[in-house]
Amino acid sequence: MTDLSQLEAELSARIDAAADTGALEAVRVAALGKSGQVSELLKSLGGLSPEARREQGPLINGLRDRITTRIAGRKATLEAVELDAQLAAGRLDLSLPPRPRRKGAVHPTMQVMDEMVAIFAEMGFAVAEGPDIEDDFHNFTALNFPPKHPAREMHDTFFLQAGAEGERKVLRTHTSPVQVRVMQKTNQKPAAPWIATGQDPPIRVIVPGRTYRSDSDATHTPMFHQVEGLVIDRAIHMGHLRWTLDAFIARYFETSAVETRFRPHHFPFTEPSAEMDVRCDRSGSEIRIGQGSDWMEIVGCGMVHPNVLRNCGLDPDEWQGFAFGFGVDRLGALKYGMPDLRDMFAADTRWLAHYGFSPFAMPNPATGLS
Ligand code: PHE
Q1: 141 and 245: one domain?
Q2: Which of 104, 112, 118, 138 is disulfide-compatible with 177, CB 3.0–4.6 A?
């Protein structure tokens, strides 16, 4: 027969001597685990006579309870000691300089888009959007590009592989296809909820978005951004167009001193057509606005061609209008002095840290204040 009091003394000594929670757990398993010493004793009760069991049972159960309590007590002590040690080791050194926190920034193009939307919204324009992947009809045909005409190549179009019906979709070369989507009333459901659907004139919308052409130099990038404008109403003329663009430029550059010039131009979808340039100085490492002998083209524009109105189901004898398409990245380069447009899309975080904007300090275009 095991000497219970000797076993208890032995186990108690081992519990008290356990130096950490790991060692204590080993003692617990040895005593109370499946085949621990105390557990084995409990199991052996089954083989005893009823009288012996009545005598031994309470003794062994009592031993088990006292050992369990002792282990729990020791465990609490050891855990407290271990926590203290951990806290002491992990103490913060408040004299250390902080690690630099890298903050995200708003890309200048997005900043300029926001400024443009705010200024045009004040003039009463709503925002419309269209898909980046366009069909030939919206990007060219409805906009009065004659079929097989070299003008289709003039945009250095990125064509997608032909689909099942042999149709080649394009990465839109301009935001003008959204003009068509806004004017044309069809029964077709748009492919996505944000894509503009036809509305009745009068129409006043701007269309911010990405555009694509196979082109790359200091003033061209294969992906760039435009803000299209479209006004359709009765008795709209070129004077309204010129005023709108000049009013926008003065607000955007926050000065009326920026010199612009209108040059006759050709677009298949406007007649007459023009391009507007801004005077700037590109001789140094930064572009400077309002001085110098260089001109930068920032917007193509004109009176919406009667064929475009007809293609969209509007009667040109009743409705006229003007349209324009701003190069957003160029407007940003001019305002914020970036010499090479390609840097804007090089994904260099140092560039973005320098030219980017804090999302919490957007200048309010209405007041010019942050
Ligand atoms: N879509 C033209 C371009 O990308 C710009 C433009 C828009 C011209 C609207 C006239 C009217 O070059």
Answers
A1: yes
A2: 138
**Same domain as 45, residue 140:** no
325 C-alpha to ligand 1 centroid (Å): 5
Q: Long-range contacts for 63-72 (Cβ within 8 Å, ≥24 apart)?
A: 63/4, 63/7, 63/8, 63/38, 64/32, 64/38, 66/8, 67/8, 67/11, 67/12, 67/15, 67/31, 67/32, 67/38, 68/32, 70/11, 70/12, 70/15, 71/15, 71/24, 71/27, 71/28, 71/31, 71/32
Nearest C-alpha neighbor of 233 from the set 207, 205, 206, 208: 205
Q: Which helix (H) or strand (E) holds 204?
A: strand 203-212
pTM: 0.71
- CATH of residue 342: 3.30.930.10
Number of domains in the chain: 2
CA of 137 to the centre of ligand 1 (A): 16
Per-residue pLDDT band at 99 (split at 50, 70, 90)? confident
341 CA distance to ligand 1 middle (Å) = 19
Which pLDDT score, from 0 to 100, does residue 368 have?
55
How far apart (Å, rounded) are the C-alpha atoms in residues 186 and 184? 6
Which pLDDT score is estimated for 333?
87
Please tell me whether residues 80 and 134 are part of one structural domain: no
Task: Tell me which of 154, 172, 176 to substitute to probe ligand 1's pocket, judged by most ligand atoms within 8 Å of the beta carbon.
Answer: 176
Domain span at residue 132?
108-355
> How large a percentage of the chain has pLDDT more than 70?
96
Taking the centre of ligand 1 as the mean of its atom positions, its distance from the CA of residue 326, in whole angstroms, is 8
Q: What is the pLDDT of residues 133-162, one digit of tens each?
A: 999 999 999 999 988 777 676 668 898 998
Residues with CB under 6 A from ligand 1: 174, 176, 228, 267, 270, 300-302, 323-325
Last residue of a domain, one of 25, 54, 89: 89
Let me know whether 40 and 153 are in one domain.
no
